[in-house]
Specification:
- The protein is an alpha+beta fold.
- The protein is built from five helices and five strands.
Length: 99
Amino acid sequence: MKPQALRETNMRTSTSAKTPVRNDISPRLALKVSAVARALKYDELAVSQAVRAGQLPSIEIGTRHLVPTMALARLLEVTPEELVAAAYPPAADGPLPAE
């Protein structure tokens, strides 16, 4: 299945605004430090320090650190879907943020 077709099967249209809305929570490949802090309900600075100290798995791209979803999910013993759902709590039937 082509990526675009896959994206379309996971989307539906909101009846009020005619904007695409996620039907499911697909795991993201990596999360920003701010999203990890939200998921863990922990201070963003503390999470950032843990990432820089190597206590949490991360990928460094320039000056930004991203935390691989699968690695963190395994570390926390949760599914990637649970991790992403905690990082991005559902808004009032709105789409996921495009980070």
